[in-house]
Amino acid sequence: MSINGSSVHKKIKEKIGEVESQSEDLASQLYQVEQGITTITSEREDCYGSLAAHYLPELDAQTVQTTLREIRGKVERVFREKQERRSALEKLMKENRENNHKLEGEIDGLTTQIEQQAQERDKTIQLISGELQKDTNYTKRDGEAKKAETRLQQYKKRVEEVEGEAERKLPAFEKNKIFSYLLRTEYGTSQYQRSGLRRRLDSWVAEKVEFGENKKCYDFLKSMPEMMKQEVARRQEELDKVVAEMEEIESRVENQHGLPKIVANAKKLMSQRQATIEKDKKEDGQYATYVKERAEIDSKKDPYHVQAVQQIKGFLKGEEIANLRARAKQTKGTEDDRLVKRIDNIDVEIRELKDKAKHVRTERDILSARLGGLREVEKKFRMGDYE
């Protein structure tokens, strides 16, 4: 059972849609985890506030509670800015994918139209071919052209052979000093001017080197290749004339069946398709930029993270806050122990949520890389016209 390119392309796009859906689910999970961190962090602040009210003088307790609210406000503001920027990026990414899907739809539509034009072109060419085969004037010229082409190729081959023979044999004539001397004096022609003893000597050496026969061979080797080339040019001109007559008949029949219009439409569609593919590639490049920035925002080196960590570290350095848990553990009482235990549990939950957030981000980034790879495969598949 054969598998066509369109069905393979469809499966690739289905896989891309599946991975995109998984990536969106992970982004949603990440927001839920971060919201959970925000909620229990607020509860931890309330626990510290209760401990402060229980152990510290009223003024100090108010200072601690105010500090807790301020630091939480600062951290939450930084955290909110980070979430807002990531949310904006993911909105841009979603819009980008929507544009991408729209462009891919346009490309698929243009591809279908091009295929239809190709089918119509092939069908029209068959009709034209059938009509031309019925045209005796055309078939006669076609037969003449084929025969002329065969003879021309044979003659060209013969020209190459004669040229090769001349290249091999002429140097022997030209290197012979006596033969060359007689050539220069134009011996045996009306231009030969020698007389007396010189003439008798020239006649004697000419007889010795068989100048007459060799001169005929020499003249043949010198002139024949050029003469044959002229004959090739003449035969080519005759063939071109027959071919031009055939092309005129072909053009008339092609116009009758609308073939030039079909070809022009196909070229226009192919140009539109290529332009749309270029737009699609730009969208992919912009999407990659968004993905990179989102990854940087979620890294430990992004400015939001650094700022939040500095705020938290400053908060934890407060002597009153650090002593509250120690004092609660040293004194008797159930309420303060309950609060400390809840703080400890919250710290554990925060660590677990942070680990989960890290895991979700890692999975999301892996999916993003896989998605990028799948899109690259899909683009190469499309650029190669395999669909």
Write structural notes for this entry.
This protein has 387 residues and is mainly alpha-helical. The chain has 10 helices and no strands. α2 (58-134) packs antiparallel against α7. The longest helix is centred in the N-terminal third of the chain and has 77 residues, at 58-134. It is elongated and about 150 Å long. The mean pLDDT is 78.
Estimate the strand proportion.
under 5%
Q: Spell out the helices and strands N to C.
A: HHHHHHHHHH
- Tell me the Rg in angstroms: 46 Å
Count of helical regions:
10
Number of strands: 0
Q: Per the principal axes of the C-alpha atoms, what is the gross shape?
A: elongated
Which sheet architecture does the biggest sheet show? none
Overall residue-averaged pLDDT value = 78
**Ends: how far apart?**
17 Å
Low-confidence stretches: none
Structural class: mainly alpha
